[in-house]
Amino acid sequence: MTSFLSYPPDDVPPAMALQQVVSSGLPLATGLRAYAEECPASAKSSLLQLAESVESGQSISEAIQAPNLRLPGYLRGLIEGGIRTGTIGPMLEEYLHQRRLQRRFGQKVTLEFAYPLVVIYFATLTCFAMLYFLVPMFEKIFSDFGTTLPWMTEVLLRLSHLTRFLLVPAAIGFIVSGIALLLYMLGGKWSKALVDRIPFFGSSARYASMSEFCSLLAPLVETSVPLPTALQAVSAAMQPSRLKSSTRSLASRYDGSQTLADAAQGFKFPHQIVHLLRWEQRGQAFGEILRSWAELFARMASSRSSVISAIIGPVMMIGIGFFVGMIVIAMFLPLVKLLNELS
Question: By CB atoms within 10 Å of each CB, which of 93, 187, 264, 282 scores lowest?
Answer without folding.
Answer: 282
